[in-house]
Amino acid sequence: MTLVAEKKRKKEHGAGAAVPARASRHPLRAEFVRGIAPWTGSVVLVTLAVGLATTSAQWQGGWAETRERLHTVAQLLGVPLALAAGCWQGGRERRRRTEDLLATAVRGRLARFLAAALPVAVGAAAGYAVAAALALLATRLYATGDEPDLVAPVTDAVTLAAAALIGHVLGRLLPWRLTAPLLAVAGYVVLGVVAYDSRGPLRHLSPIGYTSNTELPVWWQPLAMVVWTGGVGAAAVLGYAARHRFTALLPLAAATAAGALLVQTGDGLWHTNPVTRRQVCDTSTSPQICVNARYEKLLPQVTDALSGLTGRLDGVQNLPVRFTDLPGEPGPDEVDLPMITPFGWSVARGRLTDPRQFAWEAGMALYSRVECDLTGDPRLARTDDAVQHYLAPSPAERRFDELAAEGSEAERAELRARLDARARLKAMGDEERRAWLSEYFATARACDPSEVPAL
User: Fold this and answer.
1) Are residues 333 and 321 in contact, defined by beta-carbon separation less than 8 angstroms?
2) How many other CB atoms are found less than 10 A from the CB of residue 60?
């Protein structure tokens, strides 16, 4: 004791008084501060963050995409890590050879178990919670519509905590150093196999389960999944450490009931998101431009990308009424908008990746001759190429023309014919071109070259 501390003691308690003993700290505090719980949370956080960051272009900006990716990464990577961390913690006493010493402690078996297991479970759930918060924040910056799902992260956190508790029990039962890494590998393999099993009934019991960007779970599915995973974890803990082990039957019965409900309901656990059946439209253009309500904030960008196309079609007749972006086949007077999803191709982080490519794909959707044999008479292909060049040329058009110019004599001759057709369409007056395009779009599905106006 230092001189200053000694003087303070004498001043407070008197010269001959004894210094009161420091209040004992709760055993959980030592586990949270100096155990592997902080490391577990950090490893889970870093692993999930890396897994999310490497595919950020595929989910950032869409709430449903974020939910699906966060859930998949958390279960496929987080659950094996939680199992391994819990297992390693569970085998600690055997490795330190302190089992007999701890057995003489005043606290009961269950209390000792929870003092060692709960911090790791909380650490795994906390690491996931931070990763989920960062993912939701990242999507918030580029959100294109819809609303965030705050229920799925809760069910995922419960699953990770239950996995850590189950791993701790296995670590107590199999206290070998290789048990933890082997358990992590086994968990990853099993979850991966179940994730790709789209028909088996057990897929509804798997924490990774079924995920879809266009569907939502029924309101009670997250609650049933929490009871299923949490019940299994609680039953494992009570069955191993409780003084009266029959108490494990209660959470086991709850888990069994929840699991049976999940399996029996099957595909009825999910229903189509009502938002996917709606679309928002810009009716000031012809054709009108509509995007799915899930991505309504993309409408100004899409309208701007197609402004050149719709501007050149102003006054032209026989066009589809609108570009539509709903599930299923378009109506008789509609054509599909170029695909916005999956993210990472046409759209990434709330922005169109290539507006020129998007406009070309939209122009191609206005006429369709996929079932036509265009090898016999090249005039129809030249006409389509001229219209395509005028409305919204392909970003790769110049490259293809250069390749044709360097090709055989026949390829160079065909290139000259295509260039002549493009020039004739461009040289028309505005009224003449509108009339010609109106006649052209009246035959947009025809395969007979004689039915299509020539250039």
Assistant:
1) yes
2) 24
Q: What is the DSSP letter of 149?
A: -
* DSSP alpha helix (H) spans, 269-318: 299-305, 307-312
Q: Measure the CA–CA gap between 272 and 365, rounded to whole angstroms.
A: 27
User: For residue 23, what pLDDT is reported?
Assistant: 47
* Per-residue pLDDT tens over the stretch 368-395: 776 776 666 788 888 999 999 999 999 9
- How does strand 322-324 pair with strand 334-336? parallel
- Residues 158, 129: contact at Cβ < 8 Å? no
Three-class secondary structure of residue 414 per DSSP: helix
Bridge-based pairing state of the strands 288-292 and 322-324: parallel
SS3 state of residue 63: helix
SS3 at position 111: helix
Separation of alpha carbons 159 and 225, rounded Å: 9
Give the SS3 label for residue 389.
Answer: helix
Amino acid in the structure at residue 275: V
- Give SS3 for 378: helix
- Which of 129, 125, 148, 127 lies closest to 59, judged by CA? 148
CA separation for the pair 127, 28 (Å, rounded) = 18
pLDDT tens-digit readout, 295-349: 999 999 999 999 999 999 999 999 999 999 999 899 888 999 999 988 989 999 9
* Cα 84–chain centre separation: 25
Tokens matching residue 422: 């493009």
The residue behind tokens 């206290």 is 175
Record the tokens describing residue 99, joined without a space. Answer: 């089992």
Q: Give residue-wise pLDDT tens across range 82-126.
A: 999 999 998 877 766 666 555 555 567 888 888 889 999 999 999
